[in-house]
């Protein structure tokens, strides 16, 4: 059971850049469930889509696997003859992930790796690669390189499942969408100070793109098919297929 997220509950004189260290890892599940609209439904949809494309004898990757929620969800829908590979740059997140996998009775072959997605990440023999709220934290200058590694590592017919926080296509709507998003966080018992301090901490760390920019990037890399499977104001889910 995750602890309650109170990372930004006390006023901070100088807000530092957001880090996925032990403080965040200890409350991450509560944080993401209270901060991401329809997070549980996103996870269900990811698991269903992954099951549609996962092939026997291949690997399924979760890049930015955090505490393992997506891995656990996919485990219930994907046959046992497929290996899971979880990659995250936070050892503290992977420690939490291991605990959750054991608690969930996770028995399949799995390889958890510490790696920086801004650097070279080797992907091979993949039928499914998931980037759930992860690409937005990869520095923009490295995003195409990472997605090219994903594309090259996917087998024919394999898919990338991408969930991202996004910018609206029109700045007028962007302001409205953010207003509604902050109201969502208030409904989940975050104070205005918590919302403000987290926004400041993420300002230079989480860099969202427009939905159209993400789609264009995927198509430029070579994905043959690309479709939106989820949309809520400033959050979106995409599935892209390699021919």
Fold and architecture overview:
With 243 residues, the chain is of the alpha/beta class. It has a domain at 37-166 and 207-241: Rossmann fold, CATH 3.40.50. The chain has helices at residues 22-25, 28-35, 39-53, 69-75, 91-103, 140-153, 171-187, 192-202, 211-221, and strands spanning 59-63, 83-88, 110-114, 126-132, 154-167, 209-210, 225-232, 235-241. Strands 1, 2, 3, 4, 5, 6, 7 and 8 form an eight-stranded mixed beta sheet that branches. The protein is globular, with a radius of gyration of 17 Å. The model has no long low-confidence stretch (mean pLDDT 96).
Summarize the structure.
The protein is α/β, with parallel strands linked by helices.
Layout of SSEs?
Blueprint: H1 22-25, H2 28-35, H3 39-53, E1 59-63, H4 69-75, E2 83-88, H5 91-103, E3 110-114, E4 126-132, H6 140-153, E5 154-167, H7 171-187, H8 192-202, E6 209-210, H9 211-221, E7 225-232, E8 235-241
Features:
243 residues, alpha/beta, 8-stranded mixed β-sheet, globular
N to C succession of SSEs: HHHEHEHEEHEHHEHEE
Q: How many beta-strand segments?
A: 8
What is the overall shape?
globular
* Classification by helices and strands: alpha/beta
Q: For the record, what is the CATH homologous superfamily label of one domain?
A: Vaccinia Virus protein VP39
| CATH architecture annotation name of one domain | 3-Layer(aba) Sandwich
Low-pLDDT runs: none
Number of helices: 9
Strand content: 15-25%
Helix content: 40-55%
Distance between the termini: 41 Å
CATH topology heading of one domain: Rossmann fold
Please identify the top-level CATH class of one domain. Alpha Beta
What is the CA-atom radius of gyration, in angstroms?
17 Å
Global mean pLDDT: 96
> Largest sheet at a glance?
8 strands, mixed
